[in-house]
# Entry
Amino acid sequence: MDLDLDVQYSPSHWSKRYSKELVVSKHVEIVSKVSKLVKESIPYETISYGPEETSQVDIYGTSLSKDSPIFVYIHGGYWQELNKDISNYPVLPLVESGIRVFVPDYSLAPEASVSDIVEQIKRLGEYVLKGAAESGSRSVWFGGHSAGAHLAASLMNEKWFKQFDRKVQKIFRGLVLISGIYDLVPIVHTYVNEPLKLDEAEAIALSPINKDLQWFNVLMLKQDFKVLLAVADNDSPSFKNQTSAYEKFLKTQNMTTELLNLKGMDHFDVVENLSEKAYPLTVSIINLMLKYK
# Structure
C-alpha cells in the first residue's frame, strides 16, 4: 500500500471546511437533510431496472411533459458506500427547470465487484435509454460524482452501445462527470482497494481512459454529443490530474468537452451545492440540457 497515494485518494484530507475526521460525516448529514426535503416536496416513483435487489431507481419529475430531457445522477462512494436515498440533492433545481431526474441505487463492494457494478449500470443505461426513446424524451444525459463519474463514463462501451437501434443511440446526448476517477490503476495501491480487490489487469480493463472512442465519435458526431467535466478547486492533485488527463484523452478522440474548475469547492461540497439553482455547475447542467429543444 502506498501511503502517499492513500492521502491523494482520500478526499477528506483536502477539505478546507472541516477536519479530515469530520468532513465525510458532515457531507452525509448535509445531503441526507436535503434529500429528505426533496422526497417530501417532489413526487417520485421507484422502478426496478434489473434483477438485483439494489437495481432500483427513483424517478423525479414524473408529471413533466414526455419530451422532457432526462438526467441520470449516479452517486459516488468509491463503489462501496452511499445510496440513492441520500443522493437526490440535484433534483429540485433540475425538475423546476423541466428536467426529469433519475437517481439509481446499485450494488456495492465487497458484495459486488467493480466489474459487476459496471454491468449493472449498463442495465440501468439500457432501461433509461430505451424507455426515453419510447416515451419521446428529446435527450438523455448520464452523470455522476467520483466513482459515479467512472460508472457514467463506462457507458461509452462499444459492444454495449452498438446493440441499440439508431433511435435509442441518438437520444444519448452527453455526460456530466464530477471529480471522477477515470484511471483505476492508482486505486489498486491504496486503502480504497481493500474491499474492491482489483488487480492491475482488471483496473486497466475498467478504466475509461484506456477505451478507444473513435467509434463512438463517428457514431455520435452529428448528435453534438458533449462531455462536461467538473473538478473541485480543493480536490487533491491526483483527482485534478484524473480529470485533466481524461479531458485531454477525450480531445484526442475528437470528443467535444467542457472543463469547469469549481472555485473554493472541495470533493464534497462540489456536489452538495447542486441543490442550489444559482450554483455555477447547476447552471451549466441546466443550460446544457435545455439546449436541445
Notes: The chain has a mean pLDDT of 95. The radius of gyration is 18 Å. The CA atoms of residues 12 and 19 lie 8 Å apart.
